[in-house]
Amino acid sequence: MRNEKRSQLTGKLMLTLCKHTNRSMPLGSVASAALLSVTMALPVAAQEIQNVSFILDWIPSGEMAAYYSGVANGFFEEEGINLSISRGYGSSDTVAKIAGGVADFGIADIAAVFTGRAVAQAPVKAISAVYTHSPHSLFVLESSGIDGFDDLEGKSIAVSAGNSHRLYFPAVAERSGIDADKIKWVTADASSMAALLIAKRVDAAPFFSIHEYYQNKAAETQGEKIKVLPFVEAGFAIYSTSVIATEETLEKDPELAKKFLSALQKSLVWANDNIDEACDLHVAAVPEVALDDCVGSLTAMLAFVFNDSQEEFGLGRFGQDRLDFTYKQVAAAQDLATDFDTSTAIDESYLP
Asked: How many CB atoms lie within 10 A of CB 11?
């Protein structure tokens, strides 16, 4: 009966979250990896270790290197955890799977957590911030002459169905003093947006800024160079990726949540201090990822973890003002109730 209810909940969430964001990045050379996992091979007595599953929000490209290198370094084993890592299929899918009991922990955009709770009463909470501001951005070519958002009126932007960049753009346009209605949006498959931009069939394309390095490599083969227009530079500073778990998991085994977050933070700190070594370990586990792509993506990703917000509030912790601003933007984009209590979706008590 319990499994049946979980299956029903997962199905409901997949339907109600379908409006939510699609990560706009091409799959690249790792698209063929349907499922990737890492387990620790160090000899530990069975009774001393706990098997724990962790779902990502997307494919295990270089931005995920902190997690894989954390496993390889034994940080999770030190906490009594044998961690298996699985690729994700978008934040909404990860929220639905965590709610359905498919895995113990996951990473997903906080917007998907808000939406899941507000729309489908998903019993999922964010227990740690990862990205303290969002990597949402537009990529343009330097040769286009577009230097900022105020140059975008009358231009064309590629966009995939349900893309969160499109949903958030009106707020960015307002802050930039431009008319969002004067933008031409060209519907495209997520995997083709970079090619359309480089071929100059569109003037801009939405990507997470974390992926600038390897997208620029493709542009350089055509004699072009990518310029990034981050949404945050228009004052659009919202929380993004977070660690999630179900209320049941947290109530049933609070110590596990504490140990998991302790190991995860060790992994992030170590990766921040040892980017090249972290990518060596990541590529050993995920050979489809090119080493230089990993270094480029991980370097960019860590800037969203270790920054002024992390210094002010602490690693993994949320600031209430930005949290409220984040929900306001998500509610406007997703047509959610404005009186939602964000504290019901957050629980920082398991952080070190």
From this structure: 12
| C-alpha separations of 129 from 38, 119, 239 in Å | 23, 22, 8
Write out the residue limits of the CATH 3.40.190.10 domain(s) in the chain: 2-133+238-345, 136-234
Neighbours of 320 (CB within 10 A): 11
Note the helical H segments in the chain. 2-16, 65-72, 75-78, 91-99, 110-120, 164-176, 193-198, 212-220, 247-252, 254-273, 275-285, 291-302, 308-313, 320-334
The pTM is what? Answer: 0.84
Give 2-133+238-345's CATH code, choosing from 3.90.660.10, 3.40.50.150, 3.40.50.300, 3.40.190.10: 3.40.190.10
Say how far apart CA 4 and CA 7 lie, in whole Å: 5
Please state the length of the chain.
Answer: 352
- The radius of gyration of the chain's CA atoms, rounded to the nearest angstrom, is 20
- Tens of pLDDT, residues 309-320: 999 999 999 999
